[in-house]
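Narrative summary of target 7.
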Amino acid sequence: MAKTGLKNMYYSVATETPATGVLKYSGATKPGKAISYSFEPSVSSATLYADDAIAEADTSVNGGTLTIGIDREDPTTYAALLGRTLSAGLETSNIGDTAPYVGFGNIVVLLQDGEKKYRAVFLPKVKFQEGSSSANTKGETTEFGTYELTGTVMPNSVGDWRKTQVFDTLNAADTWLRGQMAANVSA
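Modeled conformation, tokenized:
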């Protein structure tokens, strides 16, 4: 399947039950229009040598780094994802800000044998962090600037760090993805 597009990014602020580690989501919210999405897994591996040869090898993914690009720096989104304070339009960043855990997902548009398919990707536990900021003066030609956020992907209480499913329609993929983040859904 060839990747041909990216649509419908969502996040959902999660509350973690301390005793069980179970996450409850607040409902899907769009952070802006999707520009880019990349995931770099954190891979741990171990190799056991015996009799001068490899006897056992193990490789596992235990999370990773997520980078998203969006078309706007919306104060409500940034306050929600980074733990900033927002009051009457004034966004305040403080050294005591604590980013919450969020569920995050998007839809990757695929092309398989001439037919469009839609792969919904859901990451149940992500913590975003403050990113770098830059701007340029307008030159002879207009250049669009976009916004990036980076987050740490980690496993939930049962060890799941990603869920994906391929659908025949965008609507079905979108419904499934928003359902993963519905209020009172646990992960």
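DSSP finds two helices and ten strands in the chain.
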